[in-house]
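Trying the structure run again after the queue cleared.
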Amino acid sequence: MGFSPAGFQKKGVEHSAAIARVRAWTRERFVLSADDTVMVVELACALPGCPPLETVIAFWIGEQRHHLKLFKPVAEVTPNDLPPSWFRSALAVDINFDGDCC
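Done. Tokens:
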């Protein structure tokens, strides 16, 4: 794999497919409309005790942001890793949430 000019490692087709799968599972699990934004990213973490790769999912319902992390690479995420649909409101974050802690 090569590197982009910005220094980010280029990901393959499999990575893009995994992102799309997790996005679709999130949309289905939390009964999101086509107008609701869903973001799925895989991030590296170098902090002690942090998994080397984690998957971060954020979605917006109207102006309300919801956020969760899965401590595994996106390619390893399964539908069972997502919380149950009734947990959706617990994933809502305050407008001042900065995400530094988790």
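Residues 1-7 have pLDDT under 50 and may be disordered. Worth checking whether this holds up in the mutant runs.
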